[in-house]
Amino acid sequence: MYDVIIIGKGPAGLSAALYTVRAKLSTLVIGRNDSALRKAGKIENYFGFSNPISGEYLLEEGEKQARRLGAEILDEEVIAISKKDFFEVTTAHGRFTGKALLLATGQPQKKINIENLADFEGKGISYCSTCDGFFYNNLKVGVLGSKDFAIHEAVELEAYTGHITIFTNGKELEVSEKYAHDVKKFKINTKPIAKLDGSQFLERVIFEDGTSEDIDGLFIAYETASSVDFARKMGIVIDGNSVVVDKNQQTNIDGLFAAGDCTGGFKQISVAVGQGALAGRKMIEYVRSL
Fold this sequence. Notes:
With 290 residues, this protein is α/β, with parallel strands linked by helices. It has two domains: 2-109 and 227-289, FAD/NAD(P)-binding domain, CATH 3.50.50; 118-220, FAD/NAD(P)-binding domain, CATH 3.50.50. Helix content is 24%, strand content 25%. The chain contains six helices and 17 strands. It has helices spanning 11-22, 55-69, 129-132, 148-157, 227-234, 269-289; strands spanning 2-7, 27-31, 72-75, 78-83, 87-91, 95-103, 125-126, 140-144, 163-167, 187-189, 193-197, 204-207, 212-214, 217-220, 238-239, 242-243, 256-258. It is globular and about 55 Å long.
């Protein structure tokens, strides 16, 4: 078991790790190299650099620093989190347990250009199989996504119905070995989706080629899971696409913190680093109080 698990390898997550490892807390950082900061070619407004630097350089140096101080860092996709006595984090290759957890995955970058999708939210569109799967007992449902996150959601839905289709929306399936067997159990539709249709509630998916498929519900599990995706499942308070935190970066769940762009507000590297530092300090206090 780790003292601290941090989801996200951006400036907020790595900043928090610097504090927790220096406080002698065992710290695991898990994330993919997909931070929005990595795409920044020139940064001139971050303190301490006389010349412009790239986002990639800043992240790589931050990761080296965290590793040198003792953080364990994994380049993996987090698929699910849960809490019983402690927090459990599931990736494609294993499960990890921690006393405190930090969400620091940045702001969701997902753009789903499907007509009418927003119109059916709460009327057949769901973002949480754990929350809403019960309402689709023995009904026909779909999962929108093409990666492990989507397969995980489909597996969760098996408890409620055997009529599950995974819609990749024109993307190729990218499934890890962990879900290679599970994916065979589901119907896969790879056609690009044009729009969703129904009278008052969602009734069908219409594809770009003019064909359609009837469904009662569609669960969104697009790309990789974000902090907001995890928040919905855990019952964490959210505001739009942001995780709600208090002045100490803690959510409404004890021991679960959030920092960086996923909390909304002024989206700057310096702000994310500061929030990560504060979250790190408060996680130290939390773990030591147990």
